[in-house]
Write a structure and sequence with these properties.
Blueprint (H helix, E strand, L loop, with lengths): L7 H32 L14 H24 E2 L2 E2 L4 E3 H7 L13 E3 H10 L3 E9 L4 E6 L4 E7 L5 E9 L3 E7 L12 E7 L6 H10 L13 E10 L11 H7 L4 H31 L7 E7 L10 H4 L1 E2 L12 H11 L2 E6 L4 E5 L5 H10 L8 E7 L8 H40 L20 H25 L4 H32 L7 H13 L4 H21 L2 H36 L15 H57 L5 H32 L6 E5 H11 L1 H6 L3 E5 L6 E5 H18 L5 E9 L2 E9 L30 H11 L3 E7 L2 E9 L6 H5 L4
Parallel strand pairs: 18-20
Antiparallel strand pairs: 1-2, 3-4, 5-6, 5-11, 6-7, 7-8, 8-9, 9-10, 12-13, 12-16, 14-15, 14-16, 17-19, 20-21, 21-23, 22-23
Helix pairs in contact: 1-11, 1-13, 2-7, 2-11, 3-7, 4-7, 12-13, 15-16, 16-17, 17-18, 18-22, 21-22
Amino acid sequence: MKRWEYSKLWKLTALLLNQICAMVLVLSVVVCTVYVGGSGFGFVGKDQTFESTGYYQDEVLEQIYRCVRAASRESKFEKNGVYDGKILVDVQQYAENSTIGSGDVKDGGLYYELTDLLNWSLDGMETGTLMKITYDDGTVGYLSKGFTNYTEQSLYGEDGTEVASISTVNKGNSETSITSVPEGDTADETDAEESSATSAMSEENMEGFVEEFITDGESSPFDMMQSTVRNVEQLEAVEERYGPVGYDSITAYAEAKRLTTAQLQEIYYDLENVLPVIYNDYYAYTENLELFSPSMTNMRYFVIPKSVEQVSPEDFSEKISTNMKSFGKEKFSSQEGLLNYIRTSYKDYLIYDSSDMNYEANGMPISLSELSSYVKSYPPSVEGDYILVVAVDSGYKASDKLAQYKKQYEEIAPVSRVAVYGVMLGAILYLLSMVYLTLAAGRSTDEDGEIMLNRFDRIRSELAALILIVPAWIILVLVSVGVSVRNLEMPEFALVGGGVAFVLNGMFLTGYISLVRRIKAHTLWKNSILYLISSVFGEMMKNRKTTTKTMLSYAGFLLGNVVLLIMGEIGIILLAFFDLGVGIFLLRQAAQRQRILDGIKRISAGELNAQIPTDQISGDNLAFAEAVNQMGSGLSAAVEKSVKDERLKSDLITNVSHDIKTPLTSIINYVDLLKREDIQNERAKNYIAILEDKAMRLKHLTDDLVEASKISSGNVKLELTRLNFQELIQQTNGEFSEKFEAKGLKLVVDMPEEPVVIVADGRRLWRVVENLYNNTAKYAMPNTRVYVELTTVGHMVRFSIKNISEQPLNINADELTERFIRGDVARSTEGSGLGLSIARNLTELQKGSFNIYLDGDLFKVTIIFPEAEEKTNRDKSERLV
C-alpha cells in the first residue's frame, strides 16, 4: 500500500509553506523587537489608548513636577500677572522654604528688593571676616576687613543707634578717618564732626595697627570710647553691595533688632545661600515663560489663592499664576466656575487644595502623597492657602514630547498588532510544517521502505555542516554591514529581510532534513570524520594502560579545543559541538560506572548472586564490570561453602550430643541404682559420688552444646512478651543467695522499686541471667562483694553485674564470649566455656546488647534492652516473668 502522505507533491508543498512561514515569522519578530520594541510602546491592544501607555504616564508625571516648579517661580517673581523687580524678598524665609514672604517690612524680616538680590548675584559675592567688639560701657563695634582692601568700623550705643564709624582705606599708606555722631542726634539729622589722623604705617603693619586698636582701650583715638574692650567675636560675613530695606547695613538691622551673634551669623549664612539660588530660580522662571507657553507645551497649570473668590476670563491673569492665555468662549465669574471649566474641558487633570489636602485627579499618574511632598519642596509664594491645578490638553497642538509620543503611537499601533499576529500564525504553521518534514524525511511512498539518502547525505557530516554554515555566516555578515551603513525604510527592510530569511531558511532546511535522514539511517556518527579518527585512535589505544589512555585522551581533547579556537567563529561553533560530544561521552561513562557501583553496593549488602548487566557497558568499564561479576560469584561460592561447613559443624555437634545422651542417661541411672544399694565400703561410695558428679557435668556439657548449636544456627523460637525485669532480678537474687553465702559473697543491689518493663522471652532471659549468676558463684573471689545494678537511661534498660575474679584474667574481653573459652586458663574449675557465648547470643536474639568489661581482676557484664513502649498502670502493677 502506497503512503501518499510521503509523496513528492506533499513534500514540496510543505517546503514552500515552511519557507513562507519563515519569512513571515522573521519579519514579524524583527518588527516586534526592533521597530515596535525599540519605540518603547510594546504590543498595543485593540482597546488600548495612548493615555494608558507607559510613555504617556512617565512624561505626564515629569511634566507635573515641572508645572509645580514653574508655578512656584511664577508666583514669586510676578505681581498682578507681570514681573515686578520691586518685590520685597525675606531672605530668611527664602532660605527656609524658597518663598519670598509677605512683603511687609513691618513683620520684622530682613527684606531686600528682588532687583538688588539679582544684581548682587550677577556682580559676584565675596566673603570675609567681621569682628564684633563689645566695650564695658555697652558700646558695640563692628570691624570688617578682607573684602575690598579697606577696613571699616561702626559703633552702636546700648540702644542700638549708630554713634560713630571709622573707615581705613589702603592707598599705599594707612589713612584713618573718624566720624562721630553726637548723642541724641542721628546721622541723618545732624552734621557729623569729623577728625582725621594720618599714619605713616606700611601696608604690612596695617593689620597690627587694627588689632592694637581693638584690644588697647587706653590708646583709643575716640573721645567717646574711654572704656576697655569687654569681648571680641568673629563672624563669617558677606560683603554688602546692597543694603536691606529700611537699614543701611545688616549690622544696623542686627543692632536694631538686638540680635545675638549666632542670629547674625545665621543671617549671613542665609544670604550666602539665597543669592545663587534666587538667581537660578529667576533664570528658570524666564525659561519657563517660553517653555510653558501654550505654543510650546500641552500642559496647563495655574495657582489661585483661596482668598480669590471672584475671577473671570477678563481678569484671571492678574489674580492667578498660570500659563493659560485664554479660555475661548467659556464664561465664569468665580473660583468654582474656573475649576468646573477645568473639569469639563480637560480629560486628564488634577486639583490640589492646600487647606484641607483635598485631591481630585482624573487620569493623572501621581498620588496625593507624592504631590504634597513635592509641593512642600516647591511651594507657591502666595498668602495663605491656595489651589493648584495641572491639566493636559488632549488636542496635542503644541509640538512637545507628548505630541511626538502621540504621533509615534498612532504609527506603531496598527503595525504592532499585525506583527504579533504574524509571529503567532507564522510560528504555529512553521512548527507544523517542521514536524511533517521531520516525519517525511527519507521516507518514500513504499510501505516499510528503507530510508533514502541522496548525494549530500553521503558527504562526511562535518564537511556537510561546513558547506552550509560558511555561506550562511558570510550572508549574515554582509547583511549586518549593509544595514549599519544604510538606514532602510520599512518597504526596503521588508524586501531585504524576507529575501535573507528565504535563503537562510532554505539552507537550514537542507542541513536539518539531511541530519534527520542521517539519524534515521544511523549514519550520522559512522559517516563523520570524528568517527574515522576515533576508530583509528581507538585501535591504537586498545592495548594501552588506563593511565596512558587517560593522558592521551586529555591531550587530544586539549589539542582539539586549540585547533578549533584558531579557526575563528566557525571553529567556535564546531568547538561547541565537539565539547558537547565529549560531555555526552563522559556522561555515558559516568552512567556505566554508576551502574557498576550500584552492583558493588548490592554485593556488599549481601546479594552475592547479584550480577551487573554488561550489555550497555563498553571499554574499560566492561572489563571492570566482568571482574566484579566474577568476584561476586567467587564470594557467593565461598560464603556458601562457609555456611555449609558451619551447618556441618552444628549437625555434628547435635548428632554427637544426642549419641552421647543415650549412654550418659544409662550411666546416670545405674549410678542412681548403685546409690540405693547398701554399700558399706566407703571407698566404693566415694567412687559412686565421683561417677555421679562427672556424669552430671557431662550432661550439662552436652545440653550446652545442643543449645549453642541451636542458637548459632538460628533454630530457636522466641516467645517475646512484656515482662518485669526488676522482678526477675529479685527472684534471681533470692535463688542464688545460699550459693553466694556459702562462698562468702555479699550481694549489693541497686535498682528501682517500681517495675522496669522490657519485651523479651522470659525463659531465655532467665537462662542469660542464671548463667551470669552461676559464673559469679563459680569464679568470684571468696569474701568479696558482688554489685548488681538495674537502671533506666532514656528509653534503654541497663543491667550490670560485676565482681572480683578469683583467678587472674589474662585474656581479652571479647574472647570470653567465644565458644569453649574460659577465664580459668588452667581449667581447674567446672565449666564448659559455652555459658557466656550462649548468654550473648540469646541476648542479641532478643534485640539486646551484651558487653563484657575487664579491668585487672574486675569482671563486669552489662546487658542493655530497649524499654517497652506504652506503659500503663497495669504494666507497672502486674508481675510479668
